[in-house]
Design a protein that fits this description.
The protein is of the alpha+beta class. Helices cover 17% and strands 29% of the residues.
Length: 70
């Protein structure tokens, strides 16, 4: 089992749909496509962008931080 597979299993157990950090987000089906440092990434939920979100297009699918209860 790879580190990526372990991470996906943990994210699923938390109820997360992927990862996000400032201005970036990815889903479990394409996790970490940026291949950059993921130290600041957090578990995330997929949601639809609204006027209140930072996303440029209303209606886009975006990833927002998941409130994780330890």
């Amino acid at each position: 089992m790879t580190v990526k597979e372990i991470l996906i299993e943990k994210l699923k157990a938390l109820g997360a749909d992927g990862l996000c950090c400032e201005g970036c987000g990815c889903g479990l089906d394409d996790l970490m496509p940026c291949v950059s440092n993921c130290d600041s990434c957090e578990p995330a939920r997929k949601t639809i962008a609204t006027e209140e979100t930072w996303c440029t297009e209303i209606g886009d699918e975006i990833y927002t931080p998941l409130e994780v209860k330890e």
